[in-house]
Every structure is written in structure tokens, then in C-alpha cells.
Design a protein that fits this description.
alpha/beta, four-stranded antiparallel β-sheet, 13 strands, 36% helix
Length: 359
């Protein structure tokens, strides 16, 4: 007989991340991590960090990191931002989860695409937020008109994951113009790899919240730093929600290394160029091998082969020590997501694919 207290357990289907093998002998192209280390300035800051200071709590508001982020984002987007426009959390997942708690509290469903970051429905289930998904076109693009109906909020990953497609600012503006009564979140985890940021629109649309991360383009997935950019009223509400369950979200080392990363703009641009160059070269070779690809503005490729199934390719690569991402899900069951690694790693994968396709 079931214990009565077990009836109070939460019933939830958790988010499933890419496989995380412990062996160092594999090529890991399934988690969209950077193939390069963080800025040398980050490593210097770690080495010079006063470990004795860890006896003290970190800054509650990560003020210096927020100031550095505001200054950098102002330059990038030709807009005037202050630290009051920035919210900091433990990776963009933490930031997004906080935003879901803060802004999606009506009885109307929030809207997001049917193929997108699979954490969104998990948060909705956890927080009891009603939601509806909008359809994808055959080419995996999305339509602004699908976000016009009355709703309790909108979430758009741009560029989208796993499709790698980026919508232009006119698309985001269109969605905002038709959603003045709710919060619109634009998740820009991959924007630095060629996407167009909506940060500048936060000055014109007070209901827009943009989220970004240090995990991808800044090669700091292990440090867990994320941020939201928006009107100061929105960031103040995020702070209030954060302070209601964890008033110290970011540790002292993360704050200092985050600042160091922002300040090394030359290294940031250099690694982005390397990833983009490798992405384009790999995409060209994959097309020559019979793959179809969406136009990627991310650090990964979303691919399908003309004759070999995604599952067969996935299993073959895995058996040869190369891990890519495969989902046994509707709409995308015959697609693979391939993270961009180093040129050497991508060449190993391409050579394996050539052998498979010739067999």
C-alpha cells in the first residue's frame, strides 16, 4: 500500500541534457560547449583570487559585474544601459526560471514554438504555468502571427535551439507590437554567433526582457553566469523574486571571472571568428555529403541526411567516439544537432561520416 506522504511528491518530466560521458577519449559535440578555453584574463583572475575571502558571502547584487555588462552591451547595441537594466543569475537557465516565476502568473497560456529549448515546458509544469506551442513551418521557421492571440506571455529563443535559425528584429518588433499586455522574453543564448540582438528594443518596449549567457560564446559553461536585460522595473521584480529564495545567486569567483571575460574583448572576438569559420566550412562539407541544413547563426548545426537516418548516424558516430545530439521526438526525430568543435574535431567527424556513407 502506498504511503500517504508519497501522494505529495511532485510529478514532473525533467529536462534531459545531452549525454555527459566521463571519458576524455571521446569528441563531445552534443552540448553546445565552446571548444576553446575562456579568456586568459579569466584564468589569471582565478589564479590571483584571494581564497581567504570565500569565508564571506558574495555580493548580493553582483554590482560590478552588472556595471561591466551594461557598459559592454551599451557599446555593442548602440544604446544607453545602466546596471539597473541588468539582472544576474546562475546561468541563463536560472535567469529564465526566475523570469517565469516573476512574470507568468495569469490564467492565460504563455506561447512558445513547438520546437525550441525543451526546458520551457519543464518550467511550466514545475510552476503550474499554462502554455501552448505555436507551429513550425516546413523549414523550421516561425510566424509572428502565431503569437498574436491573447496570451499570458511569449518566449522566443532567437537564434532558436535546436533549429539554429535567427529571426530578424522586424520579427521581434512585430511580436512586441501585438503583445503590449504581457511580457515577451527573447532568449539569446546563441546570439553572439551571428544573430541579431533585441537588446536595443528594450528601450522602446518596457515589456521586453532579453536573456543571455556566458556559457556559449564566452566559454564559461562551468562557471554558470547568465543575465537578463530589460527595463529597470522588470529587473527589480527579478531581484525581488531572487531575494525571496536565494539572495546570493552568484559566487565571488564567478563575479570576478565574469568581469575579466567581459573586459577581454579581443579574445572574445577571436574565438567567435574561429567558431563561425569552422561552422561554415563544416556546413559546406556536410552539404557535399548529402546533408540538408538550416542556416545556422549559432555554434551548432541542425542537419538531416538524404538517405541515412539520424538514429543510424548518431549510433555510428557514438560507437566511434563522437557524440552528437539526437532526439527521438516528433518533427525532429530525423535531425541531429552537431556542436561546432575545433577544426581537428570536425575533420574527424566528417571523415567518419564519409566512411559511413560510402559503406
Amino acid at each position: 500500500m502506498e504511503k500517504a506522504w508519497k501522494r505529495n511528491f511532485i510529478d514532473i518530466s525533467p529536462y534531459t541534457a545531452g549525454e555527459q560521458p566521463e571519458s576524455e577519449d571521446i569528441i563531445k559535440l552534443n552540448a553546445n560547449e565552446s571548444p576553446y578555453p575562456p579568456s586568459p584574463e579569466v584564468l589569471k583572475r582565478i589564479k590571483s583570487f584571494d581564497a581567504g575571502s570565500l569565508r564571506l558571502y558574495p555580493s548580493m547584487d553582483a554590482l560590478n559585474l552588472r556595471k561591466a555588462a551594461a557598459q559592454r552591451l551599451s557599446q555593442l547595441n548602440n544604446v544607453s544601459l545602466s546596471e539597473r537594466n541588468i539582472f544576474i543569475g546562475n546561468g541563463s537557465d536560472d535567469v529564465l526560471a526566475t523570469a517565469f516565476r516573476a512574470f507568468f502568473n495569469s490564467d492565460k497560456p504563455i506561447l512558445f514554438p513547438s520546437v525550441t529549448y525543451s526546458f520551457y515546458p519543464v518550467w511550466c509544469q514545475l510552476l503550474k504555468i499554462p502554455y501552448k506551442t505555436t507551429p513550425m513551418n516546413e523549414d523550421f521557421s516561425i510566424n509572428a502571427a502565431d503569437f498574436y492571440p491573447e496570451n499570458g506571455g511569449v518566449v522566443i529563443a532567437n537564434p532558436n535551439a535546436p533549429t539554429a535559425i535567427c529571426q530578424g528584429l522586424e520579427f521581434i518588433t512585430d511580436v512586441l507590437e501585438h503583445n503590449s499586455d504581457c511580457i515577451v522574453i527573447v532568449d539569446e543564448a546563441y546570439v553572439d554567433f551571428g544573430g541579431c540582438s533585441a537588446v536595443s528594443l528594450t528601450k522602446s518596449y518596457k515589456n521586453l526582457l532579453v536573456t543571455q549567457t556566458f556559457s556559449k560564446s564566452r566559454a564559461m559553461a562551468g562557471m554558470r553566469i547568465g543575465m537578463a536585460i530589460g527595463d529597470s522595473e522588470l529587473t527589480a521584480i527579478l531581484d525581488a523574486v531572487k531575494d525571496s529564495y536565494n539572495s546570493y545567486p552568484l559566487d565571488s569567483v564567478a563575479i570576478e571571472t565574469g568581469i575579466a571575460s567581459i573586459n577581454d574583448d579581443a579574445y572574445f572576438k577571436q574565438t567567435l571568428e574561429r567558431v563561425i569559420s569552422t561552422r561554415e566550412r563544416t556546413a559546406k562539407r556536410l552539404r557535399e555529403l548529402g546533408f540538408s541544413l538550416t542556416e545556422s547563426k549559432t555554434n551548432f548545426l541542425f542537419v538531416q541526411h538524404e538517405s541515412k537516418s539520424a538514429k543510424e548516424i548518431f549510433e555510428y558516430l557514438r560507437s566511434n567516439g563522437v557524440y552528437v545530439r539526437y532526439w527521438d521526438k516528433p518533427i525532429i526525430s530525423n535531425r541531429l544537432r552537431i556542436t561546432i568543435g575545433t577544426d581537428e574535431q570536425m575533420d574527424i567527424m566528417l571523415n567518419l561520416l564519409e566512411k559511413l556513407l560510402k559503406a
